[in-house]
Every structure is written in C-alpha cells, then in structure tokens.
Design a protein that fits this description.
By secondary structure, this protein is α/β, with parallel strands linked by helices. It has one domain: Response regulator (Rossmann fold, 3-Layer(aba) Sandwich), CATH 3.40.50. It is 35% helix and 17% strand. It has a five-stranded parallel sheet, sandwiched between helices.
Amino acid sequence: MQTALRVNLPIRILLVEDELLIAEWVAEALSEQGFVVHAAGSAGEALRYLAAAPVDILFTDINLGDGMDGTVLARRARAMLPELPVIYASARVEGLEPQQRVPGAIFVRKPYEPEAVGRLMMSLLDAANTPLVPELASA
C-alpha cells in the first residue's frame, strides 16, 4: 500500500492562457490564494516549462493561438507526467467529450471566478490523492 505524504507546500500551477490580460488577472488571483503560478502564453512555452520545472496542476485554455490547442497540450503533458491533474477552460467551447479529455480532467467554462477555480484545484488534488512531494511518498 502506498501512502501519500501531503506536505504543506505551495501548490505549483502552470497556467496556459494566450490572452495576456486574462493570464495576469488569473495568475494574480490564484497567487493571492497561496498558489505558486507560472503563466505560459502558448502550448510550446508550457511544454518547455514542464520539462524544466515541477508542476502540480496544469490549468489550460483550450483555444491557444500557437497551433497547438489545450487538448493536445494536456495529452503531451500527461505523456511527460502521467499523474498530472488537468483543468481545461474555454469560452468558445461548451464542454469536452470524455474522449477529448485526458482521464480525470475537469472542464471550466469561461468566464469563471479564479477563487472558485482555486477551490476546484484543491479538491482535484485531494480527490486524486496526489502527493505534493513525490519523493516523500513511501511504499
């Protein structure tokens, strides 16, 4: 049996949003809730960040302007980090069919309140029982 040790560390969010003003507003609001937020303006930038830095949750817009959308980004991110929790957001898409989402992902319709998204992120981590410090999880 594996025990997940939850340590009270900041939760690291990778926010992927190509609209600069939205990204700044959401990043600031999530930071005020105690999250550590890195904002990426494109899927390519997000993948580079994922390869270089630890991330606890991927929060991505679906419609990104660089040719790769949020659904493709999430699949590539999960190839790198199979247990990474994913939250999709969009104003142009009503929702995602289950086959379009990575398993366990959540869809949030824009406009949303960042405070509600912060609560959702906490519940997503709790439900997934994702250890925030994997090296401290023991078998």
